[in-house]
Amino acid sequence: MSQSLNSAIAVIGIDIGKNSFHVVGLDDRGAIVLRQKWSRGQIEVRLANMPPCLIGMEACVGAHHLSRKLQAFGHEARLMPAKYVRPYSKGQKNDFRDAEAIAEAVQRPTMKFVATKTAEQLDLQAMHRVRERLVSQRTGIINQIRAFLLERGMPVRQGLRFLRAELPRILATPPDVLSARMVQVISDLAEDWRRLDHRIDHLSNEITLLARQDTGCERLMSVPGIGSIISSAMVAAIGTGDAFTKGRDFAAWLGLVPKQISTGDRTILGKISKRGNRYLRVLFVQAAWVVLIKPMSWERHGLKHWIEAAKKRLHRNVLAIALANKLARIAWAVLAGSRTFEANKLQAA
Predict the structure, then answer these.
(1) Is the separation of the CB atoms in 238 and 284 below 8 Å?
(2) What are phi and psi of 22, to 5 degrees?
(3) Residue 189: DSSP 8-state
(4) Which residues form the Transposase IS116/IS110/IS902 C-terminal domain (predicted)?
(5) What is the pTM of this model?
(6) How far apart are CA 116 and CA 76, in angstroms?
(7) pLDDT confidence of 268, banded at 50, 70, 90?
(8) Does position 342 have pLDDT exceeding 90, yes or no?
(9) Quick one: pLDDT at residue 225?
């Protein structure tokens, strides 16, 4: 590209692909001055030789890596959720139209941006995603074993530990009750279960070790119900929490707030919106249940008055969601404020 063309470009929108990138550049007036398709090998070289400008991309696979590279070149790289870019697309869908929509969207002052993740955050996030998949596979195996046994009239008490304790007796069942073929099937499933347990424990220990070495995770673990898994998942997802201005925004991003359908003078609040990071939302709800089943700790954590007042007017499931919302807001304040949780301040509030 010519030097004059490079200097005319003020904003660039990049539609990221596996092997090719569609690039649209706009000048100060918003007119298209660049419309090209670059290969993966060309994208960094060409942008490294351009004057610093605003570059927008959708937050997708590979976007965080490219964003860090472009920031190192002096560009202002911003990532956006794909669903917020879609309204700026005009006409039929193609990659150049998508890049143009990205270039339009990145200039909006009200656009919500995604913070660029560091390599360490992505490593931690990858570990959590692998662990989540392994836990899901283990749950599937346990449910399959239960279903096979129930088909033979052998129900087992609900709970992972009860099935594990019953397995030796089940595998020793006489052939007239459970066929040798089915015993072999269940034995193979039990072996798969043991292998998954080993991998999950190994990943959990590694995550715990990393969490103890991170100051942000250490602070988060001072919050009631939050341990190494939740704290590291939160740091992997939002870093220091700079993308949010207050705890309410973080709770809303997690989908722990009512879905609002309002018009005119009517304000209608429905079920929780379930937007954002599903994995982190589930973890915070689990943390809330851990706090709720330990009433002896409520006073120590400064939550006794709030929980007892909420119990009088809320169903226990709604109470768990409300407490998860509260814990998420506390966790954001602890992380963003670089301080540990203090129960006396919560009681004073």
Answers:
(1) no
(2) -95, 125
(3) H
(4) 217-292
(5) 0.86
(6) 11
(7) confident
(8) no
(9) 93
